[in-house]
Design goal:
- Helix 7 packs across helix 11.
- The chain has 211 residues and is an alpha+beta fold.
- 44% of the residues lie in helices and 8% in strands.
- Strands 2-1-3-5-4 form a 5-stranded antiparallel β-sheet, covered by helices on one side.
- The protein has 11 helices and 5 strands.
């Protein structure tokens, strides 16, 4: 699966806000979003001066923002949406819950990695196990009752130590518990929309894909 390997700050500038794709560096460094508050490219300043966006543009930007926050490609994101639409309940909330319960995002929410990109790398490099079995699939969906742990040979990894010791690590969400000393966590329950600390208008994404 292809991955975006360019400057992540360009993605933040395109969406006009910090997406915190670089983890704690977004807190400690002067962000390009603050220095150049317009989209990248030669036409960026002109786009910033536009007073009003169409409904489609608003919907597209919201979808792109969420997709980039979680580090997904278009096909992956669309497949998640289609699955969310088939489930009972509110489609937009189902989509966000599916994104939150991805293994790479859970590792990030636990504070074991400084960013979702770093969390994805930990999973891909087989440093994480679920219910005692090594899982190297970042999109793996965790369920209530699952135990998530850093594998024994990887418990002292520097990236994990730095992430856990960071003053800017995210606050632990209520649907997860963490034994920081042993690097073991548990999914207590399925998250709800109120448990997702993100300013996202998921209804715009539903409207976009429903056309």
């Amino acid at each position: 699966m292809a991955r975006y390997t360019g400057p992540v700050c360009k993605l933040c500038r395109r969406e006009g806000q910090k997406l915190f794709l670089k983890g704690q560096k977004c807190y400690t460094e002067k962000c390009p979003v603050e220095r150049r508050g317009y989209p990248p490219g030669q036409h960026g300043p002109a786009q910033a001066r536009r007073r009003k966006q169409s409904d489609y543009a608003l919907q597209l930007r919201e979808k792109q923002k969420v997709k980039r926050m979680y580090g997904l490609q278009e096909t992956q994101f669309r497949n998640l949406f289609q699955r969310a639409a088939r489930e009972s309940g509110v489609t937009g909330e189902n989509l966000l819950i599916s994104l939150e319960t991805r293994l790479d995002n859970v590792v990030f929410r636990l504070g074991l990695a400084a960013s979702r990109n770093q969390a994805r790398q930990l999973v891909r490099h087989r440093h994480v196990e679920v219910n005692g079995k090594t899982v190297d699939i970042p999109s793996y969906q965790v369920k209530p009752g699952d135990d998530i742990a850093v594998r024994a040979p990887s418990k002292e990894l520097e990236v994990v130590e730095v992430a856990l010791g960071s003053r800017t690590r995210p606050q632990l969400v209520e649907w997860l518990t963490l034994d920081e000393k042993n690097r073991v966590a548990r999914v207590v329950r399925k998250p709800t929309r109120d448990d997702i600390p993100m300013e996202v208008q998921e209804q715009l994404i539903v409207e976009l894909y429903s056309k």
